[in-house]
Every structure is written in C-alpha cells, then in structure tokens.
Amino acid sequence: MNAAIIAAVLLLLLIPAAALAALQQRRLNVTRAELRRRETELLRATRLATLGELSASIVHEITQPLGAILANAAAAELLLAQRQLPLDELRRILADIRADESRAHAVIQRLRALLERRELEGAEIDLHAALADVSKILAGAARQRQIRIVLRPRAQRCTVLGDQIQMQQLMLNLLINAMDAMGETPPALRTVEVDTCDGPRGIELRVSDRGHGFAAEQSEALFASFFTTKNGGMGLGLSIARAIVRAHRGSIAAAPRPGGGAVFTVLLPRRAPLRPPLSCDPAARPRAPLPTRSVAAA
C-alpha cells in the first residue's frame, strides 16, 4: 500500500515537470522558427538592396532587347508596305524579335527568382549553373565599370546540397565585393577571376580581384558585420556570405592576392566521392588549356 501511494505521489510530481518541459520545448521551437523567418527576411532584404544598386545596369539589360524589338517591328512595317514582300527579310526580322524577347525574358526570370519570398529549401545545386546565372545578372554592371568576369569551371562534379537562392546570393555578394574593390584599378587590369575546382575535402570556389586589397591581419575582420574597407560600404555583404557558407556546412577565407588584390576561397562539402581531385594550386594545374569563359568584356 505504501509503495502504491509513493508511486502515485511521484507520478503527480512528474506530470507537471513533463508538462513544463513540453511547454519549454514548444517555446523553443517557436523561437527557432521565428529566428529562421527573420534570417530569411534579412537575406531577402539584402538581395533587394544589392539588386537596387544594380538597377541602372539591369534596366539597360532589359531595355536594350526591347529597343531592338521596336526597331525590328518598325522595319517590318516598312517592308509590309512594299508591293512585293521580301519574305526572307521578314523571316530574319521575326527571328531577331524572338531572340530579343527570349533575352529580356531570361533577365526577368533570373531577377524574379532572386526577389521572390519563399522558405529555404534543401536541394541539389549545380554550382556552375548558379554561377553562370549570377554572372549574367552582373554582366551589364561589369560592362559599365569596364570589368571582365572570367569563369573557369574546373570542378569535375559541381553538385552540392543546399538552397539555390542562397547560393546565388553568396556568389552575387562575392562578385560585387570584387567589382567594388577595383574602382581605382586601371581599366586594363579590371578582371574578376572565378575558379571552381575539386579540393581535398570538397568543392572549392575562388574569387580573385585586382583591387585595393587589404592587410593580412584584416583577413578575419572582413567577415565581421559592418566592417568595410570601401567608402560608403555597409559592411554586410561578406558577413552574410559567411553565414550562408556556414549554413551549408562549408568555410570561407580571405587572403591578399599576390601582386595586389584579394582572393576569397569558399569550400563546400560534396555529396559523393570524386575521381582524383584537380588541384587548386595554379602551379599544379594541367598544362593543357582548360575551358575559360569571359562574361563581360572591357
């Protein structure tokens, strides 16, 4: 009897404790969900601010094909007024109109994907495809600043698991940071080099510029919030880049570039084992020429 009473008393004591623990867990889950929501909103706000800075070049990228469409349409009207229709010329004009429409549509679709509000997703991401999209978004701004963006997609397998938009935002921040650093660089030297390769622990992404650079002792401070070496900079681009990399279980580091400028190296874990890795050391690269793409000519 005494044992039954003791068990009942213990049960009565444990029920409130269990209820309190459950309540605390629910509150913790709500707090975590709210934190994730606010982080998502912060990332989206920085994308809006970044694209706002690029608005002039983005407008140019859209209005240029639209202007070409109007010019072709006017030319087609003049041809239609002729008694004998030049069908081959009209077909060529229609093909040009379709190509320009596709070009403007592609720009809008890339911007729409970056601007839309949505929850974070975990999916397979092709880093090379994401990098190509970002470089196209920046192509107009690069031309205006007389900067060449050179892509060297060397990684044998470039798929990682993560959020597509966050990965594009990471690349956008790193490339804009490199472009901003070259404001006083002679135009002939304004080049951003973007390399991907297979590192020993994952995929490496390197962004190199020929800008004003930084002191070696500042390599860690660069990623602190509100720290900047640029006039008028907010100091959030690199800190957000590091947060995105860490969320994808990767790492990011900065180092002065030999000869002037900076090199930012991102390491992202790969999903599957690779063939023997391709070295990221320029001295150890194969002598045979590898594919290189220049996105924006000076």
Summarize the structure.
It is built from 6 helices and 8 strands.
Question: Key features?
Answer:
Heat Shock Protein 90; alpha+beta; 298 residues; 6 helices
Mind explaining what this structure looks like?
This protein has six helices and eight strands. Strand 6 and strand 7 (262-268) form a beta hairpin. The protein starts with a helix and ends with a strand. It has a six-stranded mixed beta sheet with strand order 6-7-5-4-2-8, with helices on one face. A two-stranded antiparallel ribbon has the order 1-3. Helices cover 51% and strands 14% of the residues.
Topology:
Blueprint: H1 2-53, H2 55-80, H3 87-115, E1 123-126, H4 127-144, E2 148-153, E3 159-162, H5 164-180, E4 191-198, E5 203-208, H6 237-247, E6 251-256, E7 262-268, E8 293-294
Parallel strand pairs: 2-4
Antiparallel strand pairs: 1-3, 2-8, 4-5, 5-7, 6-7
Q: Helical segment tally?
A: 6
CATH topology of the largest domain: Heat Shock Protein 90
Overall mean pLDDT score? Answer: 75
In CATH, the homologous superfamily of the largest domain goes by the name Histidine kinase-like ATPase, C-terminal domain
Residue share in helix = 40-55%
Largest sheet: 6 strands, mixed
Q: Under the CATH scheme, which architecture of the largest domain would be assigned?
A: 2-Layer Sandwich
Work out the strand percent. 5-15%
Radius of gyration: 26 Å
Give me the secondary-structure category: alpha+beta
E-strand count: 8
Q: What is the string of SSEs from the N terminus onward?
A: HHHEHEEHEEHEEE
How far is the N terminus from the C terminus? 92 Å
Strand order of the largest sheet: 6-7-5-4-2-8
- Tally of separate domains: 2
What's the CATH C level of the largest domain? Alpha Beta
How would you classify the quaternary structure? single chain
Q: Which residues form runs of ≥5 with pLDDT under 50?
A: 272-291
